Predict the 3D structure of the following.
Amino acid sequence: MARRSVVIVDDHAMFRTGVRAELADKVEVLAEAADVDEAIQAVLSLRPDVVLLDVHLPGGGGVEVMRRVGTRSPETKFLALSVSDAAEDVIGTIRGGARGYVTKTITGPELASAIDRVADGDAVFSPRLAGFVLDAFAGSIAVAQVDEDLDRLTEREREVMRLIARGYAYKEVAGKLFISIKTVETHVSSVLRKLQLSSRHELTRWASDRRLL
Amino acid sequence: MCDDCGEMTDTDNIEAFTPRRATRSSEDRILGGVAVGLAVHFGVDVMWVRGGFLLSSVFGGFGVALYAGLWMILPTDARFDESAPGIAAASRQGKRPGRSSKLEDVGPLIALAAVALGIVVLVQSLLGNSMIFWPILLGTVGLAVLWRQADEAQRERWTDTTGRIDPLRAVLGKGGVASYARLAAGVALLLGALTLFAAQSGPTGVAREVVIAGVVGVAGLALTVGPWLFRLAGDLSEERAARVRSQERADVAAHLHDSVLQTLALIQKHSDDSRTVAKLARAQERDLRSWLYAAEPEPETSVASALRAAAAEVEDGHGVPVEVVTVGDTATTERVLPLILAAREAMVNAAKHSGAERVDVYAEMDDDQAEVFIRDRGAGFDPGQVPVDRLGVRGSIVDRMARHGGESTIRSALGEGTEVRLAMTTRLEPRPGPRAEGAS
């Protein structure tokens, strides 16, 4: 498999250097960027497979990068990488278009496999993100009436999310539920889609309210 | 250190009642954010509130008066926005996305406005052209524009870091074309209203007109300046509160920086012992993270918080990271205490014996049930033959859960790690027996 091309966007030079060193033999790092404008320029000129995107970034945050790149580099996928675990940051970034969210303490090999997964068009859910999703989409629907209800999760999607939140890898989730990894990926991608497209007001409100509890 | 301990215990049971306050929305607003604020406060869709205001404005103008009154009195929600320090700082430095205007909300509003305009025209054509109607309409729009500018200026005062308030800034905020335009348009509309009124009243009864014009002028001035004065007073008290808060935060920051320095010193000392270094770094990271990004509730009131505290202890004690993910939360009562203790024991077991690099804890809680999973990818064991050194499993987990009416399941196999599931009802129904009144 060809090595993935990656652009690292983070305002901490030390962290960029660290990630670059960690990923050196696994992916091809095309460029680094330290703020929103640099990031947009790098993405549009280099068209990487994956952008490792810091959530807190001078110039409006990682969400701003995704908004302004828009559809101009359709093959580029965004993977959010942040030190913040705050729900409003996580949900905001996913809704802004990121295909996944991992925290900066992730190990090198885990990050490399997350990059592969995102580049393949799949979603990357950490246990914490799965927990947020379960919290945000409280209440599920019967499988019969699934389809286009974007505001709720199916029972199956909920099971997958719960297992991911319990620390199961996709492969283990598949084994536990007697389904294929591909099916797990389908469920996760569908949850990601709901997270991004759900119009329900409570979703964003949930994210900003929950710290007031 | 322990000077504080004594003071903290007695006040826990008294929970102050804080009434819910309606606020004006600063995010989704179109005019003053009153409708969105009310919709959130009463839990209804915002279009109903907006429609209500429009309809009652058209028939008799009560809606305008009500809206104006609420606009003046309700505080904006921006002043209650107290993010965790890390998030607040990132917002201030422009590293997080700010508010964005929502274009899709405008569509239905245009429709509503068109309907309202139609009704106005209909009423006009039925009742004939009232002399004061157009001046009043112009004047109202002018006031709305001016008040909107007052809101913008207020927002800028809050984000202004220079700390100075001079009168020009108080009115114009940071300046800019938009604020001048709003100011000019508002004043022009108000003057237009007065002129129109004077022109329509004609040469007769000039004296009466002058008196009325004077009254209107003064009233207009009071209405224009009113919000500024009102909010300026509000800001002053808010600033006092903010100063107290920032001092508290400075204290905490000092304490944290101190602990970071300690950790760095320790890391230098143990630089050849990678396990200790990782442990120290991990503990410090947890400390900083919880301060920057989470407003952690007291462990006494939140099971999620109690589990995180237990995980932190296990991490520090055994040097294995314990990741806790929680969904929902419930109060820590006497009823769920055994669950927390059993979960802690399971974490200790996993950290101590499994050899795994990480322990995952997942808890799902609602008002009826709490369920906790503790999972490791370590050595595992044969649950049928619990080794002697794992008496903790029998006594502290299985037996404890059974004694208190909970369930526990342990799945493990050699080489495949272990997962412990603990479940317990959290409902506070009186249990049979002498201790019927249960936990408080």
User: Anything to note?
Assistant: DSSP finds 14 helices and five strands in chain B.
